[in-house]
Write a structure and sequence with these properties.
51% helix, elongated, binds adenosine-5'-triphosphate, 10% strand, binds magnesium ion, alpha+beta, cca-adding enzyme, domain 2, 8-stranded mixed beta sheet, 17 helices, Beta Polymerase, domain 2
Length: 378
């Protein structure tokens, strides 16, 4: 397997300066090091990359020694974060070999580090497996990733069934890239998703939480939701959630906010996804003559309890979700005496946004109420 090398001169200003600094240090120390993955894919597609990752033949310890402000992350496959500010770091990963790598002599190697050629094969899709040599201005392509980018196709490296068995999260990544890159999923990938989707239930809820934020905090959030429903993957993330006008409205609103550089929070996603279930459970409890407050509280706790079996909701997040829900009743029925208190509540803004979206979708009868809260803030 020899790579194709394509000379492509990306504008220097498009490449992160700190990533270039890291590459320079690694090259000076005579290591091989490339930009890799999503950043090259996005640069080729004319998008602005979210992060710039580096792959190298230097071991994590060697990288760590070269950079004062760096730290080793993870145990089984340690990678290095090189810190440039409190929030900004560049991730450097050592080339990785396949499991049970056997050397030419038939000896099982005790480390899992490999060569560039081997590193390619552990990546998920061909569009994500391009490397960029910043000295020669060349894209290094072992798997026809460049043509997949040009043809807008998501193809798996290797057999999709095996690769999904190895890591079921790749199924979610496939959908995320299909939608966000407006690409076509290879038919083998689609078929394999329908066979292997149940494996998502083996993934730790904490990992799925991170993945869910990526799935829905983007400019095509609702389309991702639709594709997850169609493929049957949604049930393995949000068993209690069904499509609705409210979800459509809320996810489109999230995408709009991101386009306008406004802040978004996963608390909003979860409160929207679980609202319908929470309501149904609330009605059931009300029929048992519980007070509004008690019914609301119990319904919220139960729905959250079921949810966290699939996708983790950190404590701060479930508390916020509950606040948004509890405040709906207050916003619907608040007496004028309590208006100032409610507006002063730090969760008011989220609860108000939630009410507005309900009034614009499933609860048109709340339009006047929503207008009232809009007016009163002016
Ligand atoms: P994004 O735009 O979301 O950052 P990305 O492709 O850069 O997309 P990352 O999660 O940043 O995604 O991962 C960087 C690279 O690591 C990917 O491009 C891919 O090559 C590889 N990778 C990430 N997750 C997996 C996985 N689960 N299986 C195989 N390879 C993966
Ligand atoms: Mg990335």
């Amino acid at each position: 397997m020899n790579p194709k090398r394509h000379r492509i001169n990306f504008e220097k200003k498009l490449i992160d300066k700190d990533a270039l600094k890291v590459l320079k240090v690694l090259h000076k120390a005579k290591f091989e090091a490339y930009l890799v993955g999503g950043c090259i894919r996005d640069l080729l597609l004319g998008k602005i990359p979210k992060d710039f990752d580096i792959a190298t033949n230097a071991t994590p310890e060697q990288v760590h020694k070269l950079f004062k402000r760096s730290r080793l992350i993870g145990r089984r496959f340690p990678i290095v974060h090189i810190m440039f500010s409190a929030r900004k770091y560049i991730e450097v990963a050592t080339f990785r070999a396949p499991h049970n790598h056997i050397n030419k002599g038939g000896v099982v190697r005790d480390n899992h580090y490999g060569t560039l050629k081997e590193d390619v094969l552990r990546r998920d899709f061909t569009v994500n497996a391009l490397y960029y040599d910043t000295n020669k201005f060349q894209v290094i392509d072992f798997v026809d990733g460049l043509s997949a980018i040009n043809e807008c196709k998501i193809c798996m490296i290797g057999n999709p069934i095996n690769r999904f068995e190895e890591d079921p999260v790749r199924m979610l990544r496939a959908i995320r890239f299909e939608v966000n890159l407006e690409a076509k999923l290879d038919s083998e990938i689609s078929k394999s998703i329908s066979k292997k989707k149940h494996l998502l239930s083996n993934i730790p809820p904490a990992r799925l939480y991170d993945e869910c934020v990526k799935l829905f905090h983007n400019e095509k959030s609702y389309r991702v939701f639709e594709r997850l429903s169609e493929t049957g993957l949604l049930k393995f993330l949000f068993q209690q959630t069904n499509d609705s006008k409210f979800i459509q409205k809320a996810l489109n609103n999230t995408s709009e906010r991101l386009k306008n550089n406004k802040s978004v929070t996963p608390a909003f996603l979860f409160s929207v996804f679980l609202w319908d279930s929470q309501n149904k459970y609330f009605d059931k409890l009300k029929k048992r003559n519980k007070s509004n407050f008690i019914a609301m509280n119990q319904a919220s706790e139960e729905v959250i309890r079921r949810q966290v079996k699939q996708v983790l909701m950190p404590k701060w997040l479930s508390a916020r979700v509950k606040d948004i829900w509890m405040m709906q009743h207050q916003l619907e029925k608040c007496s004028s005496k309590k208006v100032a208190d409610l507006i002063a509540n730090p969760r008011f803004r989220m609860a108000y946004d939630f009410l507005v979206l309900r009034s614009q979708s499933i609860n048109p009868e709340l339009s006047d109420r929503a207008k009232y809260w809009t007016q009163i803030q002016k």
